[in-house]
């Protein structure tokens, strides 16, 4: 048996509860992992609220929160290749097993080994924020010296984008609240404070815009570049842009882990919480006031 944080019906934060579940058995394409750390993401509360039924509307209750984790492989499904019991790994819980948990199931093809030098907490941020940033930049395929606007630079994806874009020789501008100014400067981005008047009036044109905010904020920055990608709001296609093409594969996980190990990507973890305080971490992300990445250390 292991402790998990989940819910028995879709709803607000008050549906969340801790309960015990038996350690799951991996299917042919899955690996059982003892979770060392789990990343906290906006998708977690959106799934809990029932706003993404394509991902979890078919799953039985109770459901467990969380989509990304790092840990140690305890068992390997018969069809999984390249992973063995005892491996240190990171991956996506595309199995529906959640990651705010002491043990979970990860999809084998969406799980990768990590370097021994990489901390668990860093590794737990790779699947969502790290590979989303990588997928966005690969999709844009901008030449060195091109200008990029990151709308909402202060979150986990925004911070990763700023660093990986700078690493590719792009000129980065980011928007955010006043509290995110120093963070943007730390990673070499010009900063525009959206609380200091109309953002569009403070910006010029760009070779590309990446939106991490959605809604009206997305619509306000959409005209600033011919290339537009959103990571959270599919309505971007109505504005002539594209939604990020997520690959969710082992190769992307390995590339981000290597970038972290080489010191070229810092996930900027601003809070580490024990599993017993996971609700507190998710509440901070849900409030939209979190900077960088929050992680649950188990």
Polypeptide structure, described:
It is built from 10 helices and 16 strands. With 298 residues, the protein is α/β, with parallel strands linked by helices. The strands form 3 sheets. Strands 3, 5, 6, 7, 8, 15 and 16 form a 7-stranded mixed beta sheet that branches. A 6-stranded parallel beta sheet has the order 11-10-9-12-13-14, with helices on both faces. A 3-stranded antiparallel beta sheet has the order 2-1-4, with no helix packed on it. β1 and β2 form a beta hairpin. α4 crosses α5 and α4 crosses α9. It starts with a strand and ends with a strand.
Task: Write a concise keyword list for the protein shown above.
298 residues; alpha/beta; seven-stranded mixed beta sheet; six-stranded parallel beta sheet; 10 helices; 16 strands
Number of strands: 16
Estimate percent helicity: 25-40%
Order of helices and strands: EEEHHEEEEEHHEHEHEHEHEEHEHE
The average pLDDT score comes to 93
**Which consecutive residue ranges, at least 5 long each, have pLDDT under 50?**
none
Distance between the termini: 15 Å
Largest sheet: 7 strands, mixed
Number of helices: 10
% residues in beta strands: 25-35%
């Amino acid at each position: 048996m292991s402790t998990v944080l989940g819910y028995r019906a879709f709803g607000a934060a008050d549906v969340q509860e801790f309960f015990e579940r038996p350690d799951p058995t991996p299917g042919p394409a899955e690996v059982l992992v003892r979770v060392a750390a789990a990343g906290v993401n906006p998708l977690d509360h959106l799934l809990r609220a029932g706003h993404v039924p394509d991902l979890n509307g078919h799953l039985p209750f109770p459901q467990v929160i969380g989509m990304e984790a790092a840990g140690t492989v305890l068992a390997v499904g018969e069809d999984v290749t390249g992973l063995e019991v005892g491996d240190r790994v990171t991956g996506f819980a595309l199995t529906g097993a959640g990651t705010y948990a002491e043990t979970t199931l990860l999809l084998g093809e969406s799980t990768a080994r990590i370097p021994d030098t990489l901390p668990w907490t860093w590794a737990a941020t790779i699947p969502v924020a790290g590979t989303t940033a990588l997928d966005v930049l690969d999709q844009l395929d901008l030449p060195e010296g091109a200008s990029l606007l990151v709308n909402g630079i202060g979150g986990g994806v925004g911070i990763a984008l700023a660093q990986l874009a700078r690493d590719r020789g792009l000129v980065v501008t980011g928007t955010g609240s006043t509290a995110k100014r120093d963070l943007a400067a730390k990673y070499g981005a010009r900063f525009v404070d959206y609380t200091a008047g109309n953002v569009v009036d403070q910006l010029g044109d760009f070779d590309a815009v990446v939106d991490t905010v959605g809604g009206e904020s997305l619509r306000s920055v959409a005209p600033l570049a011919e290339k537009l990608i959103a990571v959270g709001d599919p309505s971007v296609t109505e504005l002539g842009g594209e939604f990020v093409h997520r690959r969710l594969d082992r190769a992307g996980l390995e590339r981000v882990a290597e970038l972290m190990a080489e010191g070229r990507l810092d996930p900027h973890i601003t809070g580490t919480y024990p599993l017993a305080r996971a609700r507190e971490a998710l509440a901070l992300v849900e409030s939209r006031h979190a900077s960088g990445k929050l992680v649950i250390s188990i």
